[in-house]
Amino acid sequence: MLTGKQKRFLRSEAHHLKPIFQVGKIGVNDNMITQVNEALEKRELIKVSILQNCLEDKDTVAEQLQQGTGSEIVQIIGNNIVLYKESEENKQIQLP
Question: Which residues does the UniProt record annotate as the domain CRM (predicted)?
Answer without folding.
Answer: 1-96
